[in-house]
Amino acid sequence: MEMLIDFPGGQKVDAHFGSFTVETDQPPASSAPSPFEIFLASIGTCAGIYVLGFCRQRDLPTDGIRILQRNHPNRATGMIDRIDLEIQVPPSFPPQYYEALVRSAELCKVKKTLEHPPVFEVKTKLVEIIQP
């Protein structure tokens, strides 16, 4: 999968892939989330996809289910040391599925990628700019 990253102006940096555009921005005049905020949100939303899939496969209601994500930064480095995902369910949700919800969320591809990080290669390539 390829993504094209461009700079539409100001502090904005956008990612284009398939038919989608993910817009990002930086403070102080942010009009979109920062890239790091999107990265963090991808963890919780990915877990949510797996929780949603688990419930749908079993015809379990998803009303009232939500995931609270807490990101714990290291004070010295600013990097995230721990991420807690709390799957909140309503009183009507069957207790026998609590642990299975956790196991489903742990299947998240974003989480698994962080546990086994990819190798990064960053380089510069000269390209000709074609004027319209």
How does this structure look, described?
The protein has about 130 residues and is α+β, with helices and mostly antiparallel strands. Helices cover about 30% and strands about 25% of the residues. It has a domain of about 70 residues. The strands form two sheets. A three-stranded antiparallel β-sheet has the order 1-2-3, with no helix packed on it. A two-stranded antiparallel sheet has the order 4-5. A hairpin with a 6-residue loop joins strand 4 and strand 5. Helix 1 crosses helix 2. The relative contact order is 0.12. The mean pLDDT is about 95.
Q: What is the fold's blueprint, element by element?
A:
Elements: E1 4-9, E2 12-17, E3 20-24, H1 35-57, E4 66-73, E5 80-88, H2 98-105, H3 109-115
Antiparallel strand pairs: 1-2, 2-3, 4-5
Helix pairs in contact: 1-2
Summed up:
With 132 residues, the chain is an alpha+beta fold. The protein has a domain of 68 residues. The protein contains 3 helices and 5 strands; from the N terminus they run E-E-E-H-E-E-H-H.
What sort of overall outline do the alpha carbons produce when their principal axes are compared?
elongated
Estimate the helix proportion, in percent: 25-40%
Q: Determine the number of helices (DSSP H or I, runs of at least 4 residues).
A: 3
Question: If strands are numbered along the chain, what order do they take across the biggest sheet?
Answer: 1-2-3
Q: Which percent range describes the beta-strand content?
A: 25-35%
- Largest sheet entry: 3 strands, antiparallel
Chain-averaged pLDDT: 95
- Report Rg: 19 Å
Quick one: how many beta strands?
Answer: 5
Unreliable stretches covering 5 or more consecutive residues: none
SS content category: alpha+beta
Distance between the termini: 27 Å
Encode the helix/strand succession as letters: EEEHEEHH
